[in-house]
Amino acid sequence: MLTPDQARDRAHDIVSRARAAGADAADAVFAADAALDVSVRLGKLEDVGRSESEELGLRVFVGRRSASVSTSDLSGDAFDRMVERALAMAREAPEDPWAGLAPQDRLLHGTPPLLDLDDGGEASPESLRDAALAAEDAALAVAGVTNSEGGGASASRSVYALATSHGFAGGYAATGYGVSVAVLAGEGGAMQRDYAHHGARRRRHLDAPDAIGRLAGERAVARVDPGKLASGPMPVVFDRRVGSSLVGHLIGAIAGAAITRRTSFLLDALGTQVLSPGIAILDDPHRPHGLRSRPFDGEGLPVSPTEIVVDGVLQTWLLDSASARQLSLEPTGHAARGVGGAPGVSTSNLYMAAGHVPVETLIADIADGVYVTELIGQGVNGVTGDYSRGAAGFRIVNGGIAGPVAEFTIAGNLKEMFRAMTPANDLEFRHGINVPTLRVDGMTIAGG
């Protein structure tokens, strides 16, 4: 695999060719990935897979017209054909008054931050097999676990580079490791499934495989013989595994494209109270060895920690350059770019700050409620904020977690849900989006 510097030079090379061939401006992305995955089931090796890819994406501008092409053929002749094709497409494209590269005076210059994303190592198939087997063995050893859907372990390394015709060129590498297992508990048609997974940039930061497996087994056993919920309004407590989706809906509603198209339920919310007082949502692209850390955004702009919500008040939209121009604002350093198409918007290591009370205190005054550990379906309207999803989890009775429940629906409106939200103090950084356990009062339950 190429080094980040070599990947940067590849991207810079095709940008130079595009400019020489007549493009008014251009940018290019190079992305390479090598991954090794091992899966096991019931103590036997099921599959070993290795994948490698290298792709280059080019975007050219002819006036206000633009086009994007991509290729996995990285020969010099292919580069020339790619440039020719992109320019021909751009000349026929409609004009876009907002299209263009990021502001030149905002580009990242100098040494990017060191984020400790690449441990430089490789994992052998044997070591990954052993980790997957250890996780599955630990899950199967939990009393009540009756079958396995399998365990897996993976290792990957990726290289990403971006170059623009107006002065930016940079690249970086990142490794990733993961262990997962999914098992079944119970018998026959009453079987229940659950899983556990952990991923990390550096292998030494992974949880022990037996701890991952034991957690999967305990989760599956706890779900056996679920009951039904009665319909009506009640408090809903979201487990950290699923509560992050609520923050994801907020991010989708404040992304530049949703605002410029006027398709957001938070369209006029900038500078207003959108969450309960005291709640903060932050984005930290500089988190060392973070799962979504990055030294620059998809347009070559510097990235920095961002306060998105402070004391419940929305502080900013998330803007790439095109949406910023349309709104007469500045880009926020949240552009994300793949090898195809124009940049979109993405956060990095997004999280809701921890609250001030333990989970036990958060639920102590709930006489009748539900603790949700699984969400099903995609019943969320980004324009109105209406929210309705299938769910499973556990009853909350007189301030304590009671038996499992399944086949119910939780519904509300995200605007009201956000303002009725209370976070616990149990924030952990384990995913791309991290939240503490969340309580939302006043939701509507439709029981099975």
UniProtKB/TrEMBL annotation:
Gene3D superfamilies assigned to the protein according to its UniProt record, in alphabetical order: PmbA/TldD superfamily
Specify the Metalloprotease TldD/E central domain's residue ranges: 121-223
The molecular function GO annotations come to:
metallopeptidase activity
| Listed GO biological process terms | proteolysis
Where is each Metalloprotease TldD/E C-terminal domain found? Answer: 231-447
This protein's GO CC annotations: cytosol
Q: Which domain of life is it from?
A: Bacteria
The record's comment on protein family reads: Belongs to the peptidase U62 family.
Q: What is this protein called?
A: PmbA protein
Please tell me the species this chain comes from: Sphingomonas carotinifaciens
Which classification does the entry list for the species? Bacteria, Pseudomonadati, Pseudomonadota, Alphaproteobacteria, Sphingomonadales
